[in-house]
Amino acid sequence: MKSRLLKRAYLFASSPKLTLAILVYSTFLLFGATLMQPQIGIAEMQSRYVESFIFLASPFFWSDSFLSAIKLPLLGGAFVGTLAVINLIASCMRYAKFGLQGFGVSITHMAIVLLIVSGALQYFMRVEGRISLREGVPTNLVYIGSGSKTIALPFSVRLKEFKDEKWAGSNIAKEYSSQIYFERGDNREEVEVSVNSPASFGGWTFYQMSYGDGGKTSILGVVRNPARLLPWLSVGATFLGMLVIFLPRAVFRRRNNEN
Amino acid sequence: MKTRKLVLLISIAVSMAVLSAPIAINSIFWGDDLFDAVFSESLGGLPVSKAGRVMPMSSAAADVLRSVGGKSSAKIDGEKMSATKWIWNLAAHPEKIGSAKIIRSDNKDWAALLKADGRYFSYSEILKNYESLYKAAVSSEKTPRSDAAASILNAGAEYSVAENALAICFEESMGAADSIRAWGNAVADAAKELADADAKKREPDNSKLVKASDYLSRLRYIADFENDYSNAVLRIIHSSSGFKSVAQALLERPPNPSSMETAEDYAKLRDAIASGDKPAARKCLGELILHLRQSGGINFFKLKVENFFNLSDPFLGGFILYTLAAAAFSAGMVLRKFSAPLRGSGAVFLLVAVAVHILAIIARMYIQGRPPVTNLYSSIVFTGAAAAALGYVMYIKKAMPTLAVSASFAGFISLLVAMNLPYGGDTMGQMRAVLNSNFWLTLHVVTIMIGYCGVFLAGFSAAFRLVANIFERNKVEERTSLAAGNVYAILCFALLFSFAGTMLGGIWADMSWGRFWGWDPKENGALMIVLWCAAAIHARVMRVVGDKTFLALAVFGNIIAAWAWFGVNLMGVGLHAYGFIDGGWFWFFVFVISQAAVIPLAFIKKKKSAISLEDGKNTVIK
What we know:
The complex is a heterodimer.
Chain A: H1 2-13, H2 16-40, H3 42-50, E1 54-57, E2 72-75, H4 77-95, H5 99-125, E3 127-134, E4 139-144, E5 149-166, E6 173-184, E7 187-194, E8 199-201, E9 204-212, E10 217-224, H6 229-258
Antiparallel strand pairs in A: 1-2, 3-4, 3-10, 4-5, 5-6, 6-7, 8-9, 9-10
Helix pairs in contact in A: 2-3, 2-4, 4-5, 5-6
Chain B: H1 2-30, E1 47-50, E2 53-56, H2 57-69, E3 73-76, E4 79-82, H3 83-92, H4 94-98, E5 101-104, H5 108-113, E6 120-122, H6 123-128, H7 130-138, H8 144-163, H9 176-200, H10 210-228, E7 237-239, E8 242-244, H11 246-251, H12 257-274, H13 278-295, H14 300-312, H15 314-334, H16 339-368, H17 376-398, H18 401-420, H19 438-471, H20 476-513, H21 521-541, H22 547-574, H23 583-598, H24 610-613
Helix pairs in contact in B: 1-15, 1-16, 2-3, 2-8, 3-12, 7-8, 9-10, 9-12, 12-13, 14-16, 15-16, 15-18, 16-17, 16-18, 17-18, 17-19, 18-19, 19-20, 19-22, 20-21, 20-22, 21-22, 22-23
């Protein structure tokens, strides 16, 4: 009895229809979430639809009448992600083959599991904030989220100079950069942070975000992310896996046609 | 064999005629080789710096015309003028040009008030109604009317900046060259008077200063105005320190002799054109170009390439050739009797169209010094070329006319959309700081666009097969299965590239802003494409659906790709603005509905061979 139940669960978890359902459902979930985004903002959208297991949505969301009070429970991104991990692992166990193709298929799908897991890990481990630097004034205060919460860095940051370069004869920004010092005790390090080229110190990475006060204040994004490299790895592995699946087939097909 | 050669020759001749048409029409009918000449020097080829990019005057003038009125040529008193001719006439005859209706607004209230012909009205009407426009534009209430007023004023400002771009006349009766001379004399007189008064310790005679002060305030006014509309200014005076506008060059103290010489040459040119003296204008042009060449620092070859690009309008030629190719291939599918010659000429048209399309993209890359995709416009142009080229190669290999029709159709649609995109400024403009990285632009954007092109090519091929199924009687099942195989191959290609492109975007974002994924609409759209491709591919590989349903899934991919590409761009503008279905949204919905209408075709069962057509799950895969 128990084993039969287990077997049915396994068959369900590894069923191709579930795979398809997950893919199609997440496409439409993303679409709906994107539509809601102008109304509620990205942060709210993310927490309501992507990071949730279940959420309530009205099928009449555009209406102002009583109809909009009717709400249906729908599965959120976290639930779909969990289901996808289960489905991917179960399907690989059930369908995986030996040989080059099978190897490619397994690599691709396991790397996607890693990608989803690393997304979850980043949700728990990643800290993101902003630091506002006035020229010459050292600070270690980082504003988290909408700015209501702050944390203190174990070192201080001082802005030496902010530069804002325009394309000649226009007001189109060519480059923003901040010359900053990191100061911890007697240890002092000078670096330049510019758009597309961040700098790291003590496990935190600093990104040029914007500026204010006519260039007297530079605003940097500050991120601490121990799981940073996981998505890079999994994405690379997925891509390689896909190459292993598709390339031999493309080459093989071509030969077939020539003969 | 003979007819085949004949057909090929005729097709090649037609292609060449189409490609040379813009230049031929220009030089025979309404062109003027003082302004626009392909091989000799002309006013359109003079260097101008606008919005941070050095370009030929033909580009800068067309940029002004497009941003005020959406068109790249003007019609003045029934005479069609190229952009170059327009801007020189604007300097030479400001009243005449000022009363021509070339500025556009889509707001009906304003159009009526400004006495528009349809949507077009004149600059002098803006000046007459300046008060009410200004009042509406600065009102705290944001309505379509106030937005329209603001954009009309903006167009007016760009126009007025262009009016003083080539030469400045202090008075109507005074020519530009006389104005420069008068300005120099007035400054000299004033300086002399001041020095004299200083030496004799007396009050300076104001009457001797008033002229210089008048001219000074006039030039300052122009220069300040240009500062406010920095991206609209045509900077024509080149010196070692870069490009300056005429007003800036005249204000420079002490005057830079080389800049002054250029300004005087331009002034003489303007005066010659104003008096209709063409030989004099040509002589001045020769002197000006000689002077510019001697001063160095300008890449004249690049200017020539861009000017030639403007005159020959390769995307228009490509567009017509794609249309011809699609027509020839479609006709070949219907008229089986003439199938071979029609296909032959279709192949020639398509080949020439793809070649021109790609060459034009390469020319743009050379001019801009950037990868092929930098903005929405170039993404459309690039994706169309990639889809057409890919489809052409597959057609040559598999000899399936549906692929050729899809390829021509993809090229046709992309150029049609690109040519009708609302004007958002120079399409080869400078990149903002965030995008100022050729490495990442190439890697991320080009990859993802190749992915999009795969999705569309697969979607169009699938759509054509589903439509063709209605008309065909024989071998329907076999053809459907073959098409499904091809669509599957293209979708795999699309998945590979759109996945790589999307994730490269993640890595770029992680490196530049510290986040891999931000759930913004564009990212979501890209992920939706990846998910949908994966869904379609899995549906086939795992044998969940049959050939026809698979084709329907591929067609739906078109809708998703259109959403990811255009829909999300429209969302910010359209959803909350008035008139939900205007412009972009309208065409977006037309496209979505056209694709959605094709999908049910997959589920129609023909009576004649109902059994064999049943969405067979037994079709051989791989």
